[in-house]
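User: I'm putting together a teaching handout on how sequence relates to shape, and I'd like one worked example. Could you take trypsin from Kryptolebias marmoratus, show the sequence you're using, and then write out its predicted structure as tokens right after it?

Assistant: Happy to. First the sequence, then the structure tokens directly below it.
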Amino acid sequence: MCIPSENVRPLFSFRLIYLPDIYFHFFFQIIGGEECEPHSRPYMASLNYGYHFCGGVLINNQWVLSVAHCWYKLRGASFISDFSMCSYDYQTLDYDIMLIKLFHPVEVTEAVAPIPLPTGCPMGGLPCSVSGWGNTAMDVNMPTRLQCLNVPIVEDSDCENAYPGMITRRMLCAGYMDGGRDACNGDSGSPLMCVGEVHGLVSWGQGCAQPNYPGVYVKVCEFLYWIEETLAANS
């Protein structure tokens, strides 16, 4: 467990964005998806400095899960404490996970609610859904509504073949090997939801919706002990 960053400047604001009041977007390109149903993703979070720069997911009324490579944007932030894995490797994006503790709990409602952590690791072929703000196709204007896309978990062998030597046990792939439908780099930290649980966090990938290159996600089930330990030590 790493020491939380020092909070000295009141520059960072945390927003739980709920449908249909969504106005922030960035580079997360949902290719081949569609607008989410209102209140269907009450766990979605937006990290922003007046503009959206990363996604996140609410896992209880005071903690948000995101990815460690968004941490540099949080340095010096007020209103939160952030905890990232000491083993995080910015070159390989291994251990790319971060917890954010809000100074004040949120009020849980129909529109703002946490999502459960996984009870196990996902198998290849499991149907999931990823959501984010961004393009619905390459080289078009970004929509102002949250976009959703159904994607399956990719078999480990196909994931490794797509990215030889780059996939660790703390990563998983999701998407379509024939391309055309995908989440893309940019709005990192947004959740991959499977069977009502958060199983992945958008981390990295090769291009957008390219054949043979599925999206790579943080494999949340590999960090359950660290999450539970961090929450217990900082409650």
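A couple of points you could highlight for students: The radius of gyration is 16 Å. The longest helix spans residues 224-233.
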